[in-house]
Design brief:
Blueprint (H helix, E strand, L loop, with lengths): L1 H4 L2 H21 L2 H12 L3 H28 L2 H18 L6 H30 L4 H54 L33 H4 L3 H17 L5 H7 L4 H29 L1 H21 L4 H15 L5 H10 L4 H8 L1 H21 L3 H30 L7
Helix pairs in contact: 2-6, 2-7, 3-7, 4-6, 4-15, 4-16, 5-6, 5-7, 6-7, 6-15, 7-11, 9-13, 9-14, 9-16, 9-17, 10-11, 11-12, 11-13, 12-13, 12-14, 12-17, 14-15
């Protein structure tokens, strides 16, 4: 009776939301909580310790294209299970280390697992299982991750305070593995064909009986990677990630303009609310009006937010509104970016196209965060950084328009196919 009422695609989404949410919130996003206690006990500089995050980003950058191929070739359930063993298992092993070199070495399996859990696994499986409501599914995936982050951060912080950083690593990593591992094995399936069903919203009566279970509509990877639209998609990913990474510097920016630290921290909650709201709203809108229009809307909202931050950083209400809008824009990483890839190139070779384009996300994580810091060190303010962000928004608006123009050309030349 349950299967008749609830399509298995939504069961897949539940499993993905828990896996991706905990992978991001409890593992990736809690890394900063460990830096101070680890560096103090091991007597190493925080800068030296954080180099492992750079190693992780570089491994992610290099491994993304291979990750897409693996998800195409092998069972997603098996690949994601191995991935969470690598990511969560490595995180737990950090608790046994006595040298900073251990973090550098273990950053490799940590990142390899994270590529599937936190970057490409969710979008690829949603593309396979949802013929309609893809945007909503991505929005839910992103929103749940944000909610889990609200609870995970204080829990991990409490574990460090109560039991020490070593036990906190072991408990957090083991806990995520114990929770997520069985969920992936029980709930994840590669294609709708594996459950003798069709993708949610698929009205094609023959889909269930097709030997090739993929919804093979779109432009193949070999053709796509040589097009301007593919380059512009990677640039879009790079820019939205580069801009979003400025959020780490926002509290410092506000304090420099006269805001109390406590007030600045409280205003940052507006950004978190914006991410949650944006995830759901953008998800719904992409289903209704398409990724192109929603992408342009997100860039305009982000541009307005940046102008407000630059022009009126001393007004609490204005800054709160700006941070809310900036948070709404930031949610585009988890919602608009995956649907942009699908809208431009279809489902035919989605996993390879999305994973290769996501190199822009990884590259931005390496470059942008320290760049804002260096700009501040040299100029003594974030003004130049905010002006650069405004220029990046304009570039992205132009990129979206040109990319979809290029898609029209590709379709007219017959590159979009269904076989």
């Amino acid at each position: 009776m349950l299967n008749k009422k609830i399509h298995f695609a939504w069961i897949i989404l539940i499993g993905l939301s828990i896996a991706v949410g905990l992978g991001k919130a409890a593992l990736n996003n809690s890394a900063g909580l460990f830096l101070a206690p680890v560096s103090q006990e091991l007597n190493v500089g925080v800068g030296s310790l954080t180099l492992y995050l750079s190693v992780s980003s570089i491994v992610t950058l290099l491994f993304l294209p291979f990750g897409g191929k693996l998800l195409t070739k092998y069972s997603a359930r098996l690949v994601l299970f191995i991935a969470i063993v690598l990511q969560a298992g490595t995180f737990a092993l950090f608790g046994l280390l006595n040298s900073v070199w251990g973090w550098y070495i273990l950053a490799i399996p940590l990142a390899m697992g994270g590529v599937f859990i936190t970057v490409i696994g969710g979008p690829v499986l949603i593309e396979r299982w949802f013929k309609k409501s893809k945007g909503l599914a991505l929005g839910i995936l992103s929103a749940v991750g944000g909610l889990l982050g609200v609870f995970s951060q204080p829990i991990v912080g409490a574990l460090i305070s109560q039991f020490g950083w070593r036990n906190a690593y072991l408990i957090t990593g083991s806990g995520v593995l114990i929770i997520v591992g069985p969920i992936l094995l029980l709930l994840i399936r590669n294609f709708p064909k594996d459950k003798k069903t069709k993708a949610y919203g698929d009205t094609n009566m023959n889909t269930v009986h097709q030997e090739q279970p993929q919804l093979a509509e779109g432009i193949d990877y070999q053709t796509a990677k040589r097009t301007p639209a593919f380059f512009l998609l990677g640039l879009f990913f790079f820019i939205i990630t580069a801009i979003s990474s400025f959020t780490i510097h926002v509290p410092t920016y506000l304090v420099n303009h006269g805001q109390e630290v406590g007030v600045a921290g409280a205003m940052m909650s507006a950004l978190m609310v914006g991410v949650f709201v944006g995830s759901l709203v953008f998800g719904i809108l992409t289903d209704k009006i398409g990724a192109k229009k929603v992408g342009l809307l997100a860039m305009l909202l982000g541009l307005v937010a940046t102008i407000l931050l630059l022009m009126m950083p001393n007004f609490v209400l204005v800054v709160s509104i700006a941070l809310f809008l900036f948070g709404v824009f930031t949610s585009s990483i988890g919602t608009i970016a995956p649907t942009m890839a699908s809208s431009l190139f279809g489902s035919k070779d989605y996993s390879q196209i999305y994973s290769s384009s996501s190199i822009g996300l990884a590259l931005a994580s390496i470059v942008a965060l320290p760049a804002y810091g260096f700009i501040y060190d040299v100029s003594g303010s974030y003004t130049i950084g905010l002006i650069i962000i405004m220029i990046l928004f304009v570039i992205n608006i132009i990129s979206i328009i040109i990319a979809f123009k290029n898609k029209e050309v590709l379709v007219s030349k017959g590159y979009w196919n269904t076989n």
